[in-house]
């Protein structure tokens, strides 16, 4: 692990907005380093069960091997307990036994010299992957941006239609010449995709995961687990695990650790502020989407409400808001991504619950290769505010009870980049906090955080979100 990460840790636990989930702050592990994962990093070779693979793992395997001939079963059980020895992951070459070959494999892994890596993927399956990787395919924004973060842009040879539309932002002209549009990876053209001879395809989520592994010949199809980042327990999530595993797969361990630490540090800063806001001062927030027809058609009575387990719901909490879903759905709120409600019936004049702010999530280019009609260009692709302004005016012009009872200036259109990229909920949480709780979030600069992400992590140095793109639209007073 990069020892520079040690200074980042903040101890403690914060419970946000009365939600069942807790935002866990980073803890130092037994070696005094930042534990980027609260559970064992699921890479074979992680003998001591911490968040990285290093010499300590190889030494522990050798210590275990030396103890075996002279110890009975009780003594070996004590060894395992005392040393937190992870018997499963200690079998670094996954051949069914723990011996000197495992120590050798471990050293090759952390030296970047291994030919093969064994790990548990984001779906919980044991996998192996050859590490001679020069041709990468990436599905959707999270995987594509993770490749940029890890310095792999020159190796990306294919992306699906959504990130392909962002090619001028993501890639240099020379890199673009080597990137093919996979178009629809929800239902791929397998003959076409096989012609690209990819070494690895980072798939968006688990739908058709087995089919893709079967039909893509000579390509390792990997689901890292970035689809549902869990900021309530990021250290124990597939999201952080996926970032760290990618570091070992692509020989970019320090960079992956640096990025994971930044996500966790930013989450901690936001959670600490959110936890300091008195309950009666927290604004009530509806996280929904556009073009949800509730906001366009007066005859539509239902609207989507994003809940606790969705990144949008967690961004609301990180921004110090009260997600209205908590009062609507009881225990289902804590386990749901989203629900659909008869909004006017819930928020009429006889109901004591009021909504202070509405954030509408936009997606224009879908994972299925389609383009959503009526959704404006937004995020990194927006050239000006004219198209989004027209959409905002449509969304706020309905005569629905919910809209007539609130100030339309408290309704915001937000770029899909936040939810579908690899930043979890932290960037959006920063924007929301600054918007709905400006005095509490006075020390947070979402523009600076966003620019740091773009410049330092994505490696794009000619973009400034204070002047480029549109990420959260709201008419300027």
Your description of this structure?
- This protein has 477 residues and is an alpha/beta fold.
- 35% of the residues lie in helices and 14% in strands.
- The chain contains 20 helices and 16 strands.
- The chain has a five-stranded parallel beta sheet with strand order 7-6-5-8-9. The chain has a five-stranded mixed beta sheet with strand order 12-10-14-15-16, sandwiched between helices. A two-stranded antiparallel sheet has the order 1-2.
- It is globular and about 80 Å long.
Short description:
With 477 residues, the chain is of the alpha/beta class.
The end-to-end distance, rounded to whole angstroms, is 48 Å
Structural class: alpha/beta
Name given to the CATH homologous superfamily of the domain at 279-473: Nitrogenase molybdenum iron protein domain
CATH architecture of the domain at 279-473: 3-Layer(aba) Sandwich
* Strand order, largest beta sheet: 7-6-5-8-9
Q: What does the largest sheet look like? A: 5 strands, parallel
- What best-fitting shape do the alpha-carbon axes yield? globular
CATH topology of the domain at 279-473: Rossmann fold
Rg of Cα set: 24 Å
Low-confidence stretches: 1-27
Helicity level: 25-40%
Beta-strand proportion:
5-15%
Q: How do the helices and strands line up, and which of them pair or pack?
A:
Blueprint: E1 13-15, E2 22-24, H1 55-67, H2 73-82, H3 87-90, H4 100-111, E3 116-120, E4 126-130, E5 136-138, H5 140-149, E6 156-160, H6 161-164, H7 167-170, H8 173-176, E7 180-183, H9 190-194, E8 200-202, H10 209-215, E9 220-222, H11 238-249, H12 253-276, E10 284-290, E11 302-306, H13 311-318, E12 322-323, H14 325-329, E13 338-342, H15 343-346, E14 357-362, H16 386-395, H17 401-404, E15 411-414, H18 417-420, H19 426-436, H20 446-457, E16 472-473
Parallel strand pairs: 5-6, 5-8, 6-7, 8-9, 10-12, 10-14, 14-15
Antiparallel strand pairs: 1-2, 3-4, 11-13, 15-16
Helix pairs in contact: 1-4, 11-12, 12-19, 13-19, 19-20
